[in-house]
Design a protein that fits this description.
The structure holds two protein chains of two kinds.
Chain A lengths: L2 H8 L4 E12 L2 E13 L4 E5 L6 H9 L7 E9 L2 E2 L5 H7 L4 E4 L13 H11 L11 H9 L19 H14 L4 H14 L7 H10 L4 H11 L5 H11 L5 H4 L9 H13 L5 E5 L7 H18 L2 E6 L2 H7 L2 E6 L2 E7 H6 L4 H9 L1 H19 L4 H4 L11 E13 L6 E13 L3 E5 L6 H8 L7 E6 L2 E2 L5 H10 E4 L13 H11 L5 H14 L16 H13 L5 E5 L7 H18 L2 E6 L2 H7 L2 E6 L2 E7 H6 L4 H8 L12
Parallel strand pairs in A: 3-8, 3-9, 6-7, 7-8, 13-18, 13-19, 16-17, 17-18
Antiparallel strand pairs in A: 1-2, 1-4, 4-5, 9-10, 11-12, 11-14, 14-15, 19-20
Helix pairs in contact in A: 4-10, 4-12, 6-7, 6-9, 8-9, 10-12, 12-13, 17-24, 17-25, 21-22, 21-23, 22-23, 23-24
Chain B lengths: L1 H27 L5 H6 L6 H10 L6 H13 L12 H36 L4 H15 L2 H15 L13 H31 L2 H8 L4 H30 L1 H7 L5 H11 L2 H29 L7
Helix pairs in contact in B: 1-13, 5-6, 5-8, 5-10, 6-8, 7-8, 8-10, 9-10, 10-13, 11-12, 12-13
Classes of the chains: A alpha/beta, B mainly alpha.
Chain lengths: ~675, ~300
Amino acid sequence: MTDNENNSKASRPLLQVTGLQVEFTTSAGPVRAVRDSSFTVYPGQWVAIVGESGSGKSTSAMSVIGLLPGTGHVTGGSIKLDGTEISHYTQKQFEQIRGKRIGLVPQDPMSNLNPVWRIGTQVKEAIVANGMDVKREKRSELAQKLADSEAEGHYHGSDDELFIGSSQLPDLMEESRKALLAAGKTEKQADEAMARFRDDWVPGSETRWRVREALIAEAVEADEAKRIATTYVTGATMDDRVAGLLTEAGLPDAAVRARQYPHEFSGGMRQRALIAIGLAARPELLIADEPTSALDVTVQKRILDHLHYLTESLGTAVLFITHDLGLAAERAQHIVVMYKGQVVESGPSLEVLQHPQHPYTKRLVAAAPSLASQRIISAKRRGDAETADESMDHKAASADTLEHAKTIIEVRDLVKEFKMPRRKEMFRAVDDVSFSVRRGTTCAIVGESGSGKSTVANMILHLLEPTSGTVLYRGQDTQGFDKKQLLDFRRHVQPVFQNPYGSLDPMYSIYRSIEEPLKIHGIGDKKSRLARVKELLDMVELPQSTMTRYPNELSGGQRQRIAIARAMALNPDVIVCDEAVSALDVLVQDQVLRLLNDLQAEKGLSYLFITHDLAVVRQIADDVVVMQHGKLVEHATTDEVFNNPKTQYTRDLLDAIPGGRLRLGLD
Amino acid sequence: MGRYLLRRVLQMIPVIIGTTLLIYALVFALPGDPVKAMFGEKPVNDAVAAQIRAEYNLDKPFIVQYLLFLKNALTLDFGNTFSGRPVIDVIGDAFPITIRLALMAFVFEGVFGVIFGIIAGLKKGKWYDSVILIVSLLLISVPTFVTGFVGQYLFGVKWQILPVTAGRNPGFIDLLLPACVLGSVSMAYIIRLTRTEVASNKTADYVRTARAKGMSNRKVTMRHILRNSLIPVVTYLGADLGSLMGGAMITERIFNIQGIGNTLWQGILRGEATLVVSIVTLLVFVFVVCNLVVDLLYAVLDPRIRYE
């Protein structure tokens, strides 16, 4: 693309939203979800809308495509798509632009595919609904212009955009091999080139002119290359195209996979299928609504990289919605920050990141785990320095005196095997893992889902019996505990789980939830327990009036505080946090981490922190255990892991932290 | 799949033995002497009574009677009724009528239940949704015999459109009103089930994804909302077919249909253990088979379910 064209395209916005207002009708009257939202997306540009949940970022994006949930409707402002006002469009009119002009990659890959239809069928729907020609690539407007201006260049009419068909592929390969040998390549060279072709020439995705270019690049004569491409690349079938789209979205074995159902796919694979669906009709604009927030960091990075590559090669603009400022800054050229239904700040990514103007943006920058990790560690050290005199235990936590710290939990050669249905051999979820947690420190276990980290946590909590190996608590083997010892152990080792919505009984008042452990262990009488609950609520910085409320009346962050208060009720030594902050918004996550940090400094608690997010580890942990496929691959202090990672896997995990390489201008 | 089927079929054996034993015991425990009941008000000669007892094995202990019944049942010999007809003939006369009635009720509740349910679900909150909801609630709360008598009075007596009762060999018209009455309660349940399913699927994430593809509203509704909503409805309908056959007793009494329900009723009155147990065995069998079909159907409809 020449500069000239870039400018002429850039002068006209693809999407222009000005002063958008969206209201939801409720029984209590209208609720305004978006008050004043304005942003502009230029062709081929990535624009990120950043904000916490409830800020109106998704609502703004959904009104662009006419898919507001429930009673939502646009009450003011304007939405212009390529100069045409669409805010007043009826559903029928929206059907005309959905898919074709604006695509959507939704947030949760688990619920966004219909469980009863095959993946391929669901991709096919997107092709059929928009009347896409499966034989040839739809040329984007940009490519069209390019073709017009360079009539002598690559393009020779629209037949050049015909796809490879799977039925012609074997002949194409054979002819190409002959041509390579004829062009003077050795057998070995030809085989190497063919291996590349085999990877590149995906039926239903690669086009005639690209085959020709590829052959010419391998020194095949232009006329011969043209003959082969014209004879053997004559268009794909629907099935080829479906597989081609899925391959483009990064799904391996797409032709086979297309015949499977969503439940046979992992989260990452489903998200790829959704990307294929979103891009099936080659829209000019793609709305990506937190497309990877439900996925592991490493998968997240791979998928976003791929999406970036795809949209770039197709010239698709992306409206990227996320709550993570670091992620936004890394991916988008332009950032729009929304807060309480209003756009509070917008500008070029680095500008917003390095010179945030609005106080809310400043808070976001400070809280983004990926960006602010360094700072929070230092805040922790500051905390350590202040409390060092009072808490001898905690002094031990500082890096220099590591060796002297006493071990509170030790895990030796831990193995856990599960029986697989229909399989003879056992599945090793945890494979010979040994590490220890020092008193008053935080040890983090990091890994992707399926790495066995939660299984380790459950064995430490004595909720799961190890196949072999031992868990030592204060030097005693927990397997050998009798009933009384076990009760005592449970009292001192408390869990906080991932899902703050599921781990509190909805029928229990907050008071009852926090009081329950006290009651079970027969501590105090009614009056003293009430006092203790009040004290605990103070500790987690919630008002005492929260006591009479029920979990469904509280936000996710508040619930997680309750879960922490409940875990703290018995004055434990160890708290096992299983993805305790993963489900929370960045700002809330930051608050909860700080709370945990303060409690540790105050009470000398030891934490075992299970997470998939290394950014969080940086903020809270002293030691890190990295797990992969059930094995421990690295065990060192946090600084060492971050500054000097030993294994490739750890480096991959570090790379996957969004915005990890961005530099900040805060402070 | 084959092994699953075999296991399910084998499971039917203890179910059928258990239910027949229970029913046999209950009929045995009924107060009154069946031989005396046979003669009504007339005095019975002791010798004759003893002979009858011996003929029908009534003089033997309970468990022997049951085992004799089971042994004969295996050879499809269900014995004779007290009036001397083979039980198998009595069932052969009555069962086709009940099947006809149950199938008509089944079609009625399936068609109208699903249609009204879909309308209510798609237009949740509109006035016809409320009307459909109220009517279905009414049908659920009013007992069948009330619906039956009201229907009889309105359609048969007042407006005289449909026959009041069915005769010996009832045809389609004769069974129309009974079938509607029989299917009304289930229809109301199907309406509510369909409505809830449609209303919740309507806002499902994958429906939004489908809309975002640019699919027309009609196609989204057919392929994504209805297809998914009807899975639980179909399984409910399947299981209900069994209940319709067994539950026809009241309806058959009201409309004087000589079906299996009526025959069963008379058998209970007369304390005819063989007749009652034979019919119940048959109904249990139908019920178990229906349930098996439903489970297999479920696997066909929902790809997430696979049997080993």
